[in-house]
Write a structure and sequence with these properties.
Layout (H helix, E strand, L loop, with lengths): L1 H8 L7 H15 L1 H19 L1 H10 L12 H10 L1
Helix pairs in contact: 3-4
């Protein structure tokens, strides 16, 4: 919407760098099947650990780490999820 408005008014529009970086990360993940599959598998594992009380309790007994799932709107969610995995 803002880009269209900027074009109609003839003024330059500089987008949010964080948003552009998130779009670039999502595009890279989509274009790399191995990376996309890996993120999906880790997300599924983390989701199974987080949604089940038994799995969360077992994980808590083994390690101080907790299961984290990624936020679809932020690139850092994918990074933090993969880092903790």
């Amino acid at each position: 919407m803002y880009l269209k408005l900027a074009q109609l008014l003839g003024v330059p529009h500089v987008g949010c760098k964080n948003h552009q970086f998130t779009l670039d990360i999502n595009d890279t993940v989509k274009r790399t099947p191995v990376l996309s599959n890996l993120i999906d598998e880790v997300h599924g594992t983390m989701l199974a650990c987080k949604q089940s009380l038994k799995n969360a309790a077992l994980l808590r007994n083994l390690t101080p780490l907790t299961a984290t799932i990624h936020n679809k709107t932020r690139w850092s969610g994918k990074f933090l999820m993969m880092e903790s995995y």
